[in-house]
Amino acid sequence: AQKVTQAQTEISVVEKEDVTLDCVYETRDTTYYLFWYKQPPSGELVFLIRRNSFDEQNEISGRYSWNFQKSTSSFNFTITASQVVDSAVYFCALSELASNTGKLIFGQGTTLQVKP
Amino acid sequence: DVKVTQSSRYLVKRTGEKVFLECVQDMDHENMFWYRQDPGLGLRLIYFSYDVKMKEKGDIPEGYSVSREKKERFSLILESASTNQTSMYLCASSLEGAPHEKLFFGSGTQLSVL
Fold first, then answer.
1. φ, ψ dihedrals at B85, nearest 5°
2. β-strand B87-94 against B19-25: which pairing, if any?
3. Are the beta carbons of A103 and B108 separated by less than 8 Å?
4. Which of A36, A38, A44, A49 is the best residue to mutate to test the B interface, defined by the most B CB atoms within 10 Å of its own CB?
5. Strand ranges inside B3-94, DSSP E
6. DSSP state, B102?
7. Residue A106 touches chain B, beta carbons under 8 Å
8. Which of A40, A51, B7, B76 has a CA that sits 20 to 30 A from residue B20's CA?
9. Taking a contact as any Cβ pair under 8 Å apart, which residues of chain A between 54 and 83 contact chain B?
10. What gap in Å lies between CA B107 and CA B85, rounded to an integer?
11. Does pLDDT of B101 surpass 90?
């Protein structure tokens, strides 16, 4: 069965600290996609990144970076020099290929609080 | 930009009422989804639709039904609302067929069943 686990329920940091959000996944597919979404207090989930299973290159986008390691089935997300606006719930998700309908399986979410 | 609009941000209903949650998207997406979000459980898929009049059960369909009469609109129906259906409901849409297509979400409807 496919599964996504975000073991950190809540994380609290002080502004300018670096923070890493963990994501571990399970799948029997050899081809799959991983995603991160951000849910600010407004409620609407916003897409951050997508990574396919054949591309293990780490990615950096401004203060955000992602570390994909197939050997440990992990897709961790790091925010460098965190800011108050980074406070949100962050979800990791895995695509399910069987039905080819774009269904995503989400982790439990990690609530990040960045204090000034 | 894709816009997914959910009709209500907050909704309060009584146990036993029939409840309709409406979702409209404006980018001609084939796929539409209803998730519910509960603390500690993340997002769980209730139903999804990959075409007009087509629907498939997700992981937790019990107590819910859906309707997709037009491509842009996907309705979630609680036939007889119960207190355990108090939750945040999120609608999403995506392009057809590709597993790597990202989902576009609405802002959610916080439903309270009293």
1. -100, 5
2. unpaired
3. no
4. A44
5. 4-6, 10-13, 19-25, 31-38, 42-49, 56-57, 64-70, 73-78, 87-94
6. P
7. yes
8. A40
9. none
10. 18
11. no
Alpha carbons within 13 angstroms on the beta-carbon side of residue A80 total 7
Q: What is the mean pLDDT of residues B34-50?
A: 93
Averaged pLDDT for residues A60-71: 92
Residue A9 near chain B (CB below 8 Å) = yes
Tell me if chain A has a CB within 8 Å of the CB of B87: no
Mention every residue, 6+ apart, whose C-beta is less than 8 A from residue A98.
none
pLDDT, residue A95, reads 87
Query: How many CB pairs lie under 8 A apart between chains A and B?
Result: 72
Cα B105 to chain center, whole Å?
10
The end-to-end CA distance of chain A, in Å, is: 41
The arithmetic mean of pLDDT across residues A84-112, rounded, is 86
B51-67 residue pLDDT tens: 898 899 998 999 999 99
Chain B residue closest in CA terms to A109: B42
Under DSSP, the state recorded for B101 is P
Unique residue bearing structure tokens 């930009």: B1
